[in-house]
Design a protein that fits this description.
The chain is low in regular secondary structure. It has one domain (2-223). The protein contains three helices and seven strands. The longest helix is centred in the first third of the chain and has 24 residues, at 2-25. Residues 85-92 have low confidence and may be disordered.
């Protein structure tokens, strides 16, 4: 497990380098992400960075999470596949087990709300921002991207995205998965890479208005023994 966690962190470090190259080539800006009914897969981070990683599929997966859910994979040790969820993207789709903090996307200026009705004025959009070392970019994940916040509730069980409340209030659950002994591997907007404690996810600056002093969640039983931050 530990050796595979090290390989996973190496993968994330490679992705940080690809994001750094992409932003250097695009006036420090990140990719647009997909917004609205006309969005296509070419706006996802996996496609935006394809020219940098050469479609190397091995880099798309944590070595502990290679089997997609649609093929019998089980969270937290499962990959995602966009094909069944977004068939309009074509048979190629995207699959992997890392996800982007969607608040980093740089959507078109005319797009004022994200898919959950939250303002895109909170998006970071580029890498040249203050506090970049505490802004998540890419992490171990159950889905290709998510819009987390510090007021989101933790999953009641490991790998359980579902539960009560609006979908927008559950986004942090995509990253709150016990894949590496109480941690996930993650890259930040300054392109640094490190382990992130699961409870630490609530101390990160996901978007411009994230409240770092938000009340501590009521931790579910499976998280109570993890390190506090």
């Amino acid at each position: 497990m530990q050796a595979k966690a090290i390989v996973c962190r190496s993968n994330v470090r490679q992705w940080a380098a690809f994001f750094s190259a992409y932003t250097s080539d695009n006036n420090y800006c990140f990719n647009t992400g997909w917004y609205g009914p006309t969005a296509t897969t070419s706006e996802s981070w996996l496609d935006a960075l394809r020219r940098y990683y050469g479609n190397n599929k091995e880099l798309c997966y944590c070595p502990l999470a290679k089997k997609p859910v649609i093929e019998g994979g089980r969270h937290p040790f499962a990959a995602f596949s966009t094909v069944p969820s977004f068939p309009s993207f074509g048979s190629q789709g995207n699959s992997g087990s890392y996800g982007m903090n969607a608040w980093v996307y740089n959507p078109p200026r005319e797009v004022t709300l994200n898919p959950f009705g939250l303002p895109t004025s909170n998006n970071w959009r580029n890498a040249n921002v203050r506090g970049a070392s505490n802004i998540p970019l890419l992490l171990d994940s159950m889905w290709i991207d998510a819009w987390p916040d510090t007021n989101n509730e933790p999953p009641p069980r490991d790998g359980d995205f579902y539960g009560s409340g609006p979908m927008g209030s559950r986004q942090i659950r995509m990253f709150c998965i016990n894949r590496h002994e109480g941690t996930v591997n993650g890259a930040f907007v300054d392109f640094s890479v490190r382990k992130i404690g699961l409870k630490e996810l609530w101390k990160l600056k996901w978007h411009r208005s994230s409240d770092l002093n938000a009340p501590t969640p009521d931790w579910p039983d499976w998280m109570k023994g993890f390190k506090h931050y």
